[in-house]
Each structure stands twice: as C-alpha cells, then as structure tokens.
Amino acid sequence: MSKTKQIFIIFFSVCTILSAQEINQKIPKKAGVYSAIIPGSGQLYTKKYWKIPIIYAGLITSSYYIIENNASYQLYKNTYLKRNSGDNSDIYQGQYSDSDLITLTNYYRRNREISILFLLGTYFLNIIDASVSAHLFNYDISDDLSLQIKPIYFSKENTTGIALSFNL
C-alpha cells in the first residue's frame, strides 16, 4: 500500500471517530440560541422535557399579569386625566378621590413593571438553563463512587504491584 493511501485511510478513520464522538455531545451555544429563538427549545435539544411546561407557565403567567396590570393602569390614568381636564362624569366619581386615582395608577404601573421583569427573568433563565444543561449533558451522576485496589503482576519485569482504580 502506498504512503498516500495509508495517510488517506488514517485521516478518514480519525474523522469518522471524531464525528461519532460529537454526536453524543450537546453544544451549549446551540442550546442557548435555540432557547433564545423559541423558549423551551433548548430544553428540548438537551432532552430536559420536564422543564418546558415550567418555562411556559412562567411566561404565560407573567404575560397575563402584564396585560391585566396595564389595563388597570390605563383605566385609572385616563380617569384621572379626564378629571383634570374638567370631565367629572366617570364611574369612580364618589368612590375614589384624585389622590386615590394617583395611588392606584402608581400601584398598577409598578405591578406592570414587576411583571415585565418576571417575564424577562423567565426568558433569560430559560436561555441560561439550556446552556448549562448542554454543558452538563454528559456528566456522570451515578452513585458509584468507589476505589478498587487490585494486585497485579508485570510478567516482563517479573514484579508485582498494586493497581488503584477510581470510579467517580
């Protein structure tokens, strides 16, 4: 066999071995990008299926509270602005004073902003979780933490020894 053929065969066998090893590994950057584009898809990529409903529960709940708090904020803000312009025919005329409307407006604006922070927090934690799960995808979490001590015999040197084997 010629030298070129041997190098060619060795090169393709090494490439095949390396590509076979990459199949079992998950790429953290890819998992993060997947989760950034579609929340939960990074968890799907890393096979952490049980986390997907938790992510969507956080996103949907935060979105719900953003919508509800924004609606209440707009209602009380517009009612206060109408009162300031001289229109006193609102549904809260005898119920809330102007200072009460300002307090309610500030309260619902603050709650809306907190809900937005929770939405962003859930979104970014989703991306971080996918990336960390991809980093730890092949991490061995078995309970087999052991040390094995075995006697060995080296026939070439005609000596004996002790072999230590760790399982982490």
Q: Care to describe what's here?
A:
By secondary structure, the chain is mainly α. The chain has one domain (3-167). Helix content is 64%, strand content 11%. It has a two-stranded antiparallel ribbon. Strand 1 (146-154) and strand 2 (159-167) form a beta hairpin. Helix 2 runs antiparallel to helix 5 and helix 4 runs antiparallel to helix 5. It is elongated and about 105 Å long. The two termini are 44 Å apart.
Topology:
Layout (H helix, E strand, L loop, with lengths): L2 H21 L4 H10 L3 H5 L6 H33 L13 H38 L10 E9 L4 E9 L1
Antiparallel strand pairs: 1-2
Helix pairs in contact: 2-5, 4-5
List keywords for this structure.
mainly alpha; 168 residues; elongated; single chain; 2 strands; 5 helices; two-stranded antiparallel ribbon
Order of helices and strands: HHHHHEE
> Strand pairing plus helix content: what structural class?
mainly alpha
Helical percentage: 55-70%
The biggest beta sheet reads: 2 strands, antiparallel
Give the integer mean of the pLDDT values.
86
Q: What is the strand content?
A: 5-15%
Uncertain ranges: 18-22
* Spatial separation of the terminal alpha carbons: 44 Å
Radius of gyration over C-alpha positions, nearest whole angstrom: 32 Å
Total strands: the figure is 2
Compute the number of helices: 5
Number of structural units classed as domains: 1
| Strand order in the sheet with the most strands | 1-2
**Outline type:** elongated
Produce a short descriptive summary.
64% of the residues lie in helices and 11% in strands.
